[in-house]
Structure formats: C-alpha cells, structure tokens
Amino acid sequence: MFTFQTRRILSAMVACSTLALAVVAATAAEDKVAADKKKETILIAVLKSEAQPSDKAMACKQLALCGTKDAVPALMSLLADEHLAGWARIALEVIPDAAVDEALRSSLGKLSGRCLIGAINSIGFRHDVKAVEALAAKLKDNDVEIASVAAVALGRIGGDSAAKTLEGALSGAAPAVRSAVAEGCILCAEKQLAAGKADEAARICDLVRKADVPKQRVREATRGAILARKADGVPLLVELLQSADKQMFNLALTVARELPGKGTTDALVSELGKASPERQSLLILAIADRGDATAMPTVLQAAKTGPDLVKVTVVKVLKRLGNVSSVPLLLEAAADENASLATTATEALASLRGKEVDAAIAARLPKVDGKVRKVLLQLVGDRVLTAAIPDVIKATSDADLQVRLQALTALGYAVEFKDIAVLIGRVASPPENAEEAQAAEKALKVACQRMSDTEACAAKLVAAMGSAKVPARVNLLEVLTALGGKKALEAVGAAAANSDTDIQDAGSRLLGEWMTLDAAPVLANLAKTSSDTKFEVRAVRAYIRLLRQFPMKGEERAEMCRTAMAISKRDAEKKLVLEVLLRYPSLDALQLAGATAKIASLKDDASKTALAIAQKIRGKSPQVQELLAQLNMELMKIEILKAEYGAGATMKDVTDTVRKGARGFPLIVLEAATYNDAFGGDPAPGTIKELKIEYRMNGKNGKARFTQNAEILLPKP
C-alpha cells in the first residue's frame, strides 16, 4: 500500500508530466504559427517579385494553407491577371478574415470580363452578406454571363435581402438571365428552409414554379416546394406521380425517397394500382428505398397479380428487405417458367437472413414436389440447413432424376460427418445413371473437404474401398486425392503398387497430381519398385514435378535432386533434373551437375548446366573453381569485341548486353529468357534473326553465330 507521502509524490509527478505535455503542445503550436508566418512572408515576396507565373501559382496554392490578411493585398494584385486570378482566388476564398471580403467587394468596380466573373463567384462562395447591394447592381449588367453569375452568387449568400432582390428580378430579368435568377431563388429557398423558415422557402419555390423559366428550374423549385411543406407537400407529390411528363414522374420518385412520413408511403402505394407496369416497378423500388414495412403487403400483392416485370422487381426488393413472410411468394416465383424471375427469386431466398427463414424452408421440404422441391433442395445446400438433412437423404431416392441430382448436391454442401456414409455408399456402389454417379462423386468431394476431421473422413473412404468394385475404388481414390492427408496418401500409394493394373494406373496417376511434398517418398519408392516402365516413368516425372514446383530449403531440394537422379533410369528424366538444378542454382546444384557430366550421354548437357549455374551464382570462390576443375573447366579471359542482333541489313548493336553475360566462361547467360527481351525489342519483326559475336578467348580471336534464342556457348578459337 502507498503511504500518504508516496501518494503526494506520485501526484506531483503526474502533475509535472501533464504540465510538461501541455508546455510541449503549446510550444509546438507556437512553433507552427511562427513557421507558417515565416513561410507566408516568403510566399508574399514571390507574388511581388518578377517570378515565373508557374511559381506564383504555386505560391497561391501554398497561401491557401498558411495565408492571413497580410497576404490579401498581394493576392488581390493578381485578380486582374487572367492567368493567375483563379490561383489567387483559391487562397482568397479560404483565408478567414473580413479583409478578404472588403477587398473582393472593392474589386467589383475595377475588374471586367472573366476576372470579374471569378471575383463574383468567390464572393458567393464566401457568403458575404454585405455584397448583396453591389451584386444586385450586377444583375442589370449588359454581359449576360456576369448578370447570371451575380444571380447565383446572391442565392449562395441567401437571406431576406438577397431573396427580395432575386424575387424582384425574376419577372423583369432578360430571358437569357432568368434561369440563373431562378437558380438563385431556389438556393435562397434552401437556405431559408435550413434556417427553419419553411413557409418562406415554399413561397419562394412557388414563385419560381409559376415564372417563365426553363423546365429544369421548375422541377428544382417543385422539389423544394414539396420538401418545404413536408406532409402538406404530399398532394403536390401525387400530382407529379400522375404526371404524363416522364421527367416530372422521375422527380416525384426522387422526392418520395427524401420526404418522410406515412403520407408519402400511402401516396406511392395508392398509385401502384393505377400505374403502368413500368411505372409500377419504379414505384416499388421507391417504396423499398423508404424501408417502410407497412407497405410490404401491398407490394407482395402486386407480385401475385402483376406482370413479370413487376414480379421481378418485387423479388429484387425482397432480396434486400424480405423476411420469413416473403418465403411463400418467393418459392412460387422460384418455380416460375420465367427463367429470370426464377433465378432472382432463388437468389433472394438464399440471401434472406434469420433462423425463421431456415425453419420455414426445412418445414416445406417434405410437403412439396416438382420444381418447388428442387428449389428447396438447392436452398438446403446454399443455406447449409443441417436440420433438413434427413429429408434430403430421402430425396436421393426420389423417382425424379433431377430431384435426386439436386439432393446429392445439397448433401455435398450441408451433410454432417455422422451422415457422410450416405454419400460414400453412393460412390462405393454407384447408381446405373452416369450423371447421378458423377453427381454423387462430386458431392462426396465437396463434403469431405468441408469436414473438420479429414483423417477420420479418409478412414471411412478407405474402409469403403474394401468391398467396392474396381471402377468404384478408382472413384474413391479420386475423392481421397482431393481430400489429401496422411491416410489418403497411404491409400493412394498402396493403390499405385496394387496388383490390379487399373487400380495401379489410377494410383500412380493420382500420385502425380498430389499437391503436397509428403508424396515425394512414396513416388520415389514407387519408381524404385515398379516393374512396369510406364508407372516407373510416371512416378519419376511426378517426383520431379514436386521438386520443380514446390518451395523448400536449399539443402532439401539438393537432396531431392540427388534422389531424382538416382531413381531416373532414362536420360530424358535426368535432363529434367538438370533443368531443376539450373532453375535453383547453388553450389550443391553445381556439384550434382558436375557429377552428372561423368555420364557420357549427358556430358554436354550437364557441362552446359554447370557453366550456367556457375555464372548465375557469380562463382569465383575456391569451391566453384574446384568443381569446374573437375569438369576440366577453368575461368577464362573472355572479351566481347562486338555483338550484333538482327536479320540481313537490319542489325542492332548489343555488345554491352552480351558483355554483361560473359563472366569468365564460354557460356553466356543473358538477363532475359529470349533474345528480344534481353536486347530491348525485336529489330526485324516477322523474320528469323541471328546473333553475331566477335570475341577474344584467352588472347585468341573468334567469331560465332547463334540462331534466335539459341544457347550462347562460345567455341574455343
């Protein structure tokens, strides 16, 4: 326990730490302010200098981050420059000081054209209330674009004064400006609504709706009028829903998603029975987006009585919003002759959430037949409904082949370990129908790979092989291979050594497809003991495949390469091992290549491999020298005098590239697999090319030619 004195000391320490942190934070803040001020001074100096426009533009961007009122005069000096005015306004629009507003207002009488338009835009962006009077004057400007920009800027500023100005101009403005004035009015209305002045917002929107303005503005104002009135706006919404104008109808759908309240939902539902199928579908989507559950019974009824287009739309909605009450309708749609509707409904049933939905699907399975039964079986698999497995097992004996196939597929995805014997039995004693037998094997593979205890699963499969006929045993071996694991490997390995040729053929083939390194010893043993050349070669090549494709430690690969050489009786397989050695170069690989060079029929291939390995490991070490000496090879002084690549008169100088590949050995190894890639492209497309090299080897000159992509081994002069 702490003593009172100890607590006082700890409290003091904490207080000191807190104070220290506060001091550090304050100091950091002070440092940043000072740094920003210093930076601002430098940037202002850039603007005042004779710097390039690009440098001044960059300075303006930086001042947007650190500028203060001190930067305003320098920035304002650029507003009349058409090239830099926009950059200056980037900073002016975000500097939080009234000096900016004063400066921009004062510029209105000094600027013209595009520069004036930009300044007006910036005033609108900053919502400068004091600029209303000056902007009102600009509404009468002879330049249509200036007057239009002023109208929109007034709308962005908002407030009673701006609204009154725009209302006054709405009827008297020139036709070319009237659309912008209407836009300004609508912006004012939005600000009034945000400020809680809904009646005023509705009034302004109504003025625009009745004015002689473009339809786009009328639509925008109508939206504002409805939203401002809230529940009282529903009659106007209904008017739009019944409009023959497609754009007005689409506007109504948009507003219906924004306007809260039961009245809006009721209006949409009411229009369902009156609208065309196309509009019904759009109304249903709007209802769904509102998420109002009270409308779902009407929506479901539309799906029962409406045309296919409406049914498909309802099903799509139920995929997102449906629940257990939607199951009967969706099942009916899933069995429909309309393939698109059936597919969408099945997907919706698979995606519905909740245990109640699972229970409803499982409860219906034993009570239905035909297409609905097939759909339910598919759902058992899609939703992994283990409670329905007893009924699915019964369905595997149904008189309808398609039901049996769907039941087998469902078992693959949903069966539990305690019932997997059902599928094993179907594979061990396959049905006469080939399609059904294939479905059973596929389902068994899926089911086995799902099981948590794969070894226990493999044990059941191995046990079933004992009494199965040869074709069925082969199928079970296929499943074991897909499953993998210790017991499966033992069974497949034993099959590869079986006295029955068909079993032996399947076992050796499947070992060649094994996807883990633990198959290597089994393959090596098979290669050593098999009396059939076909199976022996298959085992060796499968062993080399593992060696070539799988990641492993260097010493492990070297040991496997030695084993591969030992079990390979033919030169063809030994050459494959040499390829592996070259792919994974090391001292061990060089040593094994050297040993292989003692075989007369492989001397040339092994020697070339050894040289290439030595080059790849950049070997000048005593070990490399010693290994090469055993091959009667020594490091040479090789100089590449000239190298050209191409065809006919089209030759490309590649001397430097070839020199990089010459490292003291006759074999030159390029950095890329093909000449074109190594030499930076194809100098003569569509023709056979050659590489010409002039060189000096240990002081003696030589020349050599190599056909495109041939191995580059320089002959001794």
Quick summary of this structure?
With 717 residues, this protein is mostly helical. Helix content is 68%, strand content 5%.
CATH architecture of the domain at 97-259: Alpha Horseshoe
Which structural class is indicated by helix and strand composition? Answer: mainly alpha
CATH class of the domain at 97-259: Mainly Alpha
Write down the overall mean pLDDT: 91
Cα distance, first to last residue?
Answer: 92 Å
Give start-end ranges of low-pLDDT stretches.
1-10, 14-24
- As a whole number of angstroms, the C-alpha radius of gyration is 42 Å
Q: Estimate what percentage of residues fall within beta strands.
A: under 5%
> How many runs of DSSP E, i.e. beta strands?
6
CATH topology of the domain at 97-259: Leucine-rich Repeat Variant
Largest sheet: 4 strands, antiparallel
Number of helices in the DSSP assignment: 39
- How does the overall form come out from the CA principal axes? flat
Helix proportion range: 55-70%
CATH superfamily of the domain at 97-259: Leucine-rich Repeat Variant
- Strand adjacency order, main sheet: 2-1-4-5
